[in-house]
Amino acid sequence: MNFEPVVLFFVLGVVAGLLRSDLKIPGSIYEALSIFILLAIGLKGGVELAKHPVGDLVFDGLIIVLVGAIIPLVAFPVLRFIGRMSRADSASIAAHYGSVSVVTFSVGITLLGHEMLEFEGYLIVFLVLLEIPALVIGVILARHGEGTVRWGKLMHEVFFGKSIYLLAGGLVIGFVAGAEGIKPLDKLFFDLFKGVLALFLLEMGLVASTRIAALREYGVFLAGFAVVMPMFSATLGIVTGWMLGFSVGGTFLLATLFASASYIAAPAAMRIAVPEANPALSIGASLGMTFPFNIFLGIPIYLWMAKTIHAI
Amino acid sequence: MSSQSLLLLTILSEAVLEDILIEEIMALGAKGYTISEARGRGTHGVRTGKWTAGGNIRIEVIGDAELCSSIVQRLQAKYERDYGLLMFTCPVELQN
Fold this sequence. Notes:
The structure holds two protein chains of two kinds. Chain A is mostly helical. Chain A has 14 helices and no strands. The longest helix of chain A is centred in the C-terminal third of the chain and has 33 residues. Chain B has two helices and six strands. In chain B, strand 3 and strand 4 form a beta hairpin. The chains are: A mainly alpha, B alpha+beta.
């Protein structure tokens, strides 16, 4: 069994929430932890990126973004016509699933470390790229030519919201500094990463425990969607990674990236761009269901899928 | 001691709207505002403030009745339908 002990901190948080423990991570600490994780992931990607000719990544990037765009386009009709949800809710949830989760990705990376598997470090660039198209597609699907969209405000939220800004900023700094230049920061950003991730997962568990109950109100369909959709997206990722010639680790991480659903960047962007969508539905599904599914069951399954396809 | 009678308008809404609401309030002629983070429960469910997208803010503006009512009307028309929004005024004596 591929098991990464860091996910147990998530369980600790969920149990604390369900048992109404007075455990609470102060908002400012949570902010600091998320800044750390985003910067660390960005830096790691930048250092790896510096080892590769950037031009080679353009083709891979284009394919990955195009395949990634399939996810919200498949999710939307499923939610709208099978789930009979409103246009706004379907579009908002589709955008959450098309967008990505940095923490899910981080858990994937720690599992690879645990398994001693290498991966293409520049995949982190795609983490930044994949965040954007799904949000734009979600807004277009929600509007369908009606009503006005505050594109300026939305784009500002997407590009200068802390997730993209810090990830991209970390990438640039890592790229400019290179492996040698970043050495003095290694102890803080790389050696401590897993510990910080553990604390962050504890907080995610606390938050998720309040969402699991909310999800119950919205029935079996959404809960089913929150499990089936990431499996579908992961399969897309496995096939894409394999066809692009990624290693087992890289194929697995691309699948994890596709399978993950956003719960930090997408909720804020969708709340502004599609205000009539009910945020309890999208966050309940992505954080209450898909996130725990991915870190406990999904990630080991995707790793198995990646190993299997490479064994063929 | 001279004091001036004004209204204190308190707006409780979603943290994600902070920039947008401030823009509206300033455009309507407010001289300033105070923002604090808040959490609570209302018709939009529990707002725990446990992570960025889930928190509330409390915006306080002091102004004359005309300013307060124009802010209330604008926010009500544009944001009440889709967002958690609660507004109330109380008379205040400005001391400085």
